[in-house]
Amino acid sequence: MNVEMLVNGKKVKADLPPSMLLSEFLRDTLDLTGTHVGCDTSQCGACVVHVNGVSLKSCTLLAVVANGKSVTTIEGLAGSVGAELHPMQEAFHVNHGLQCGFCTPGMIMSAVDFARQTPNPTESDVRHWLEGNICRCTGYQNIVAAVLAGAAAMQTQVGG
């Protein structure tokens, strides 16, 4: 099936099998390796991307569904190669919100969408949001701190 979409700001055209998952297309065809495939549960969240600005798990979405849409992966979040990190990426770095890194791209992509929907989240808000994102390495405290700092930085960026 022929598809055309904007991936990280670049037009992409491809002929794909109708059963190909978006995560497979991004990782295996476009070599965007920040999007993980092969997780053992759709609850892991390591494959989260933005489709038309909304965070979705690309491991549960057929690539053909993104036809005509804009897709942003962790590689495109900062805008361009060499650009400064997105405020949420910077917050995860500064607050040590990662350990092995497997869940980090999806966690950050999901956190950006969460912060847009909840501009001034509380620790309780973040912990509730985290229920759908599995990290097997951390105790989540640094992730919570990173999301709170990232949300505050995004608010500052929007407000200032």
Q: For the terminal residues, how far apart are their CA atoms?
A: 44 Å
What's the helix count?
A: 5
Estimated radius of gyration: 15 Å
Arithmetic mean pLDDT? 88
Total strand segments: 5
CATH fourth-tier homologous superfamily of the largest domain = Beta-grasp domain
Most strands sheet: 5 strands, mixed
CATH class of the largest domain: Alpha Beta
CATH fold-level label of the largest domain: Ubiquitin-like (UB roll)
**CATH architecture group name of the largest domain:** Roll
Strand content: 5-15%
Summarize the amount of helix as a percent range. Answer: 25-40%
* Global outline: globular
Number of separate domains: 2
Strand order of the largest sheet: 2-1-5-3-4
Provide the succession of SSEs. Answer: EEHEEEHHHH
> Runs with pLDDT <50, length 5+?
none
Class of secondary structure makeup: alpha+beta
Overview of the molecule:
- It is built from five helices and five strands.
- It has 160 residues and is an alpha+beta fold.
- Strands 2-1-5-3-4 form a five-stranded mixed sheet, covered by helices on one side.
- Helix 2 (87-94) packs antiparallel against helix 5 and helix 3 (104-117) crosses helix 5.
